[in-house]
Amino acid sequence: MGLSYDDLSLLRFIQKRQSIPLHKVAMQFEKNEISIRRAIEQINLYSAAPMIEIKKGWCLSRVSYKEFVDFIKGISMEDYASSWAERIRVVIVTIFFQGYVNASSLYESWGLSLTTKKQDTANLRRLLSDHGLQLVTLKKKGLSIEGDELQLRFLVIDILHPLLEFTDENRIEARFANTPLEKQSYDQAADCLQKTSGSAVEQLNAFLADAGLSLNYPSKKFLLLFICLMQSRPIDESMQLSYRLPLAPLNMHFSDNPRENRLYNVALSMLNFSRSLEFPFDGRLWQTTEQFAEQVVASLPEPFSIREEFLDELYSYFYREITLSHFHCTFVDKTVENTREQFLNLYQIIQKYGVYFKAAYNFSFMDEHFSTLTLLVQKHVLRNRIVDRHRKKIVVVTSINFERVSFFLEQIREYVALEWKGTFNINEIHRLEELEYDCIFCFSSRIYNILSAQNLPVIRLNFFVSQEDIDRLLTRGFSTLKHRFLTSSFVLELAGKSEREIVEYLKEQYGDYFV
């Protein structure tokens, strides 16, 4: 029968947690407990020692990440049960980089029947049709793809994006835990990526430096892939390019070539930058955003005054996500989990009013959207609740998107006094040398281990802060947040300032306390 992608996802889920109740695993994978037990038995058949044990209703795994990776690397094609979705991804990537694929030879190499190939081809045609693409046959060669070149590029990037890492030495490498078919997809692209990644990194870093911007890790990988494809497969007049977008793209300078620059701006409109960009104004989107915000806030137990800052943040988020959805691309954040359980009432409120965007843009929210919006709104709930100035300076190193990081910061400011100096992804840690800071916050074991190995002052925290986290921070010298000011000192600070200057001063110096 062989191991499947779902089996490996189950193993990684339990391995990452080491210990978790069986019923929670069943809920996570939307299966019953008997099915989970069978899957675990199947996994253990392929290992000399059990990878997972079940004792008294708990799933236990003492496997390290390295052992997990070694286990996956040891899986042969004969022992792997691929799905049709995995197989057609290999076909798409092969066609993109080779021009065509001999599907009969490919399926023969996998030991699969012509019936399976026929069924997969039907699924491939349906997928391509959803992207405005068509499967065609090239005489004496095999299958190829025609249609909207931009949709095809984003489809290929969406396939490759999870399969590679962008190292702190600015190199592209295959992800350690790729399955046999994921490895095959990456290998098809490897030659192109190795040839173009050096100049692509230079172009990317120059753009970010000139614009004074930074990207979260998934967005940086996404844009790097787009640049590599633009360099290896230059745009020409023979290519079909549809500009029928739901929203106008950004208008930034990335390339001196006007046609290329427009395509780059489409990609830029889909990314998660460290600060909100000025997206073009779209009256319908602004009105829909206002309706959504008003209904959500009105449904809260303690409604707050809706300010333009809140609307701007929502507008930018929806602009980006609607553009991503148009190209069927997704950025899934696996670091932050259980948002629904943490804020069930708010999560359900946002679910209720997501229909506004379905009606206006045929944009359906996924859990990823509900979770990010829940954290974004909860951040403003915390911010609007009615000083200690000796705050430790902190930076955050993570791949989590910036909306979620901003919630984390607002949350932790409820407990301790701190000054946030910036958020960086793992391949930007060299930038820490430029900053004055006291401590680094991170959320994952991988990032913690990398930073600890360099003797950096790092603390790993839960994204949803626990009392244990607060106690750990207090023992590291952080102070609890005080909500009182020394009157005489405060009056002296404001003396001689105009009303406008006072407002600006309070926002800059006491942004944690004045809204």
TrEMBL record:
<dbReference type="InterPro" id="IPR007737">
    <property type="entry name" value="Mga_HTH"/>
</dbReference>
<dbReference type="InterPro" id="IPR050661">
    <property type="entry name" value="BglG_antiterminators"/>
</dbReference>
<dbReference type="Pfam" id="PF05043">
    <property type="entry name" value="Mga"/>
</dbReference>
<keyword id="KW-0805">Transcription regulation</keyword>
<protein>
    <submittedName>
        <fullName>Transcriptional antiterminator</fullName>
    </submittedName>
</protein>
<keyword id="KW-0804">Transcription</keyword>
<feature type="domain" description="Mga helix-turn-helix">
    <location>
        <begin position="92"/>
        <end position="155"/>
    </location>
</feature>
